[in-house]
Design goal:
InterPro entries: Homeodomain-like_sf, HTH_AraC, Tscrpt_reg_HTH_AraC_N. It comes from Shouchella miscanthi. Residues 196-294 form the HTH araC/xylS-type domain. By secondary structure, the protein is α+β, with helices and mostly antiparallel strands. The chain folds into two domains: 3-120 and 131-184, Jelly Rolls (Sandwich); 189-300, Arc Repressor Mutant, subunit A (Orthogonal Bundle). Helices cover 48% and strands 20% of the residues. It has helices at residues 3-19, 108-118, 139-150, 158-175, 180-183, 191-204, 212-218, 223-234, 238-255, 261-267, 273-284, 288-298, and strands at residues 24-27, 33-38, 45-49, 52-58, 60-65, 68-73, 76-80, 84-92, 99-105, 132-136. A six-stranded antiparallel β-sheet has the order 1-2-9-4-7-10. Strands 3-8-5-6 form a four-stranded antiparallel β-sheet. α3 (139-150) runs antiparallel to α4 and α9 (238-255) packs antiparallel against α10 (261-267). The longest helix has 18 residues, at 158-175. It is globular. The termini are far apart.
Length: 300
């Protein structure tokens, strides 16, 4: 790594540190931009990650999608281009040298507009690409990101300049390796857009029984083709994706003490308490009540 990139990393970590006195996820004065700080390693945290660019300024993290593990640090960035059920675990962090990260959310429309204005296109006709990837962070990307976060010191400039700088950052993503993973969401009538539509339908009705035939018909694909492209993007089948949504929502209900385990399972679509407990244990490592006890003990 050259000295220029090291200097950029140091500046970025100083800016994030200055705006994050405490651990947690912090809103900034720039819409779509968040800072994340953690003084300690974490256990796996399960979430539905929306489309975003994540750049680590300090520390290291592992993200798991289905059976695939992605590790990234201050030399690499993570991109999620679809709503994906993942788990994330911070593996390098101390009070003296906390994990520091920025997350820049983006929308499909921003990618569509940028591709139209720059004549971007898929590199070639190909199958659907995974909706998550890790790339090495280049100096041009660091510089674009630094220009954006420096605006936090001049709030009056944010409304005019931030959209332009976010556009540059997204442009850098589209010019970088693995960019087809992002471009595919903007191709009208393409497989990427169709899979995004299916994901939205599953998210809206995840407690209901899933019909592959109805989903496939809604996007004018065969059931086998939908299954194939969906798994290429999410690393999961539609049924597995729905199961993750159900279990994550059930866990939220249980850990927030909104309801007991049996009721939570029923509310998210499970008819069998024993099946719910088995699948909950498989995803989260422990059955619901032991998981709740562990959570309460860790958050005293």
């Amino acid at each position: 790594m050259n000295n220029h990139i090291k200097e950029q990393q140091v500046e970025l970590s100083h800016i994030i540190h200055r705006h994050c006195e405490n651990d947690g996820v912090h809103f900034t004065g720039i819409p779509q931009l968040y800072f994340i700080r953690s003084s300690f390693k974490s256990t796996p945290i399960h979430t539905i990650h929306e489309p975003a660019l994540c750049i680590v300024a300090q520390g290291e993290k592992i993200v798991v999608l289905a059976q695939d593990r992605y590790q990234y640090d201050a030399s690499h960035y993570l991109v999620v281009s679809f709503d994906l059920p993942i788990s994330g675990e911070i593996i390098t962090a101390t009070p003296e040298s906390p994990y520091l990260c920025l997350r820049l959310d983006f929308e499909q429309k921003q990618i569509v507009d940028l591709m139209m204005n720059t004549d971007q296109a898929l590199s070639k006709k190909s199958n659907s690409k995974p909706g998550l990837f890790v790339n090495q962070t280049k100096a041009e990307m660091f510089e674009a990101v630094l220009r954006l976060v420096r605006l936090l010191d001049t709030p009056k400039d944010i409304p005019v300049l931030a959209p332009l700088m976010i556009q540059e950052i997204l442009y850098r993503l589209l010019e970088d390796d693995n960019s087809d993973s992002i471009k595919q969401i903007a191709i009208v009538g393409g497989h990427g857009q169709k899979i995004a539509q299916v994901i939205n339908r599953i998210k809206q009705d995840f407690t209901k029984a899933l019909s592959m035939e109805e989903l496939a018909l809604s996007i004018n694909m065969s059931s086998s083709s939908l299954h194939d492209h969906f798994k290429r993007v999410t690393k999961l089948s539609p049924l597995q994706y729905q199961k993750q949504l159900r279990l994550q929502e059930a866990r939220r209900l249980i850990l927030s003490s909104e309801t007991d385990a049996a009721t939570a399972g029923f509310r998210v679509g499970y008819e069998s308490p024993s099946q719910f407990s088995r699948e909950y244990s498989r995803l989260f490592g422990q059955p619901p009540m032991k998981d709740l006890k562990r959570y309460l003990s860790a958050n005293k």
